[in-house]
């Protein structure tokens, strides 16, 4: 018996393609589910940040891998130091979500509860880190060789080069994560503040615990120093090799994050995606000689630029009400994508300035 396929209601090739696409979709959903289960198992709860990023499972996987490595895997800093540095970084932007999360982790790994009463209760080495924390959080373009020299000078309370690199990576990671949390509104999903058994001063707030001071910081001014040209210092040619040499494997993990966010499917023009990234770097004083910055004004609506600048530079819900993303058309997935671009571009910018200063110290 011969079956004629010409009169069939569907083409076999189309059906195979449909099945293949369904398998890919199901595979991506399964991957996202597994990643969420992993986050749930690690933290005992599925946090809002992981939920937001789960729409991009490949990126979420690289993000979680990097974060786990920085906080828990091989490195010169003890675990309680890492979580306290994360508290210091998050406190710069009054990010209650991260401060609460890392305060709980700090106590869980054996950190001294007294340190949570304020930075003045922490060891001198950590207090020395306060200034570079402020500079990287608010004016990273001012990061200088002298900042690194002050931390690395000989003495009982000095930092080793490997310790400082890990601390800088952790600070930049948490600062940029504050931007994502602020942009996604995840700061409202705070965990209960860990109880400090030794008492706290009146009016105590965990966000001030590692802030260095309780006064509001002035808003960051734009870069006034010489612009950082990509040809002079870039992640690909300079930052990657230095950080990977001084903090084993972290360069590969960070590079994977940058590549993943660059390769995420974007429903709009790839030129728009590049304009968003370059605009964020432009805000931070980083310029690309081969890019026409007229594209930024042509492609980015004013509302989108205001949103990006607020999330990148002022991610502090206690001082900055987040303006809605008035970008048409905008979907929830588009907003997550923009927030990821802001986070990764800011992370790379902070790292470039910090690593350049370390390079200058090493060759001085």
Tally of contiguous helical segments: 16
Content-based structural category: mainly alpha
Distance between the termini: 85 Å
Strand content bin:
under 5%
Task: Describe what this molecule looks like in 3D.
The chain has helices spanning 12-43, 48-53, 57-72, 79-92, 96-108, 124-128, 130-138, 145-152, 161-184, 206-209, 235-246, 250-263, 270-283, 294-299, 302-313, 332-363, and strands at 228-229, 286-287. The protein has 364 residues and is mainly α. It has one domain (56-364). It has a two-stranded parallel sheet with strand order 1-2. The longest helix has 32 residues, at 12-43. The radius of gyration is 22 Å and the shape is globular.
Summarize the structure.
The chain has 16 helices and two strands. Helix 4 runs antiparallel to helix 5, helix 8 packs across helix 16 and helix 12 packs antiparallel against helix 16. The protein is globular.
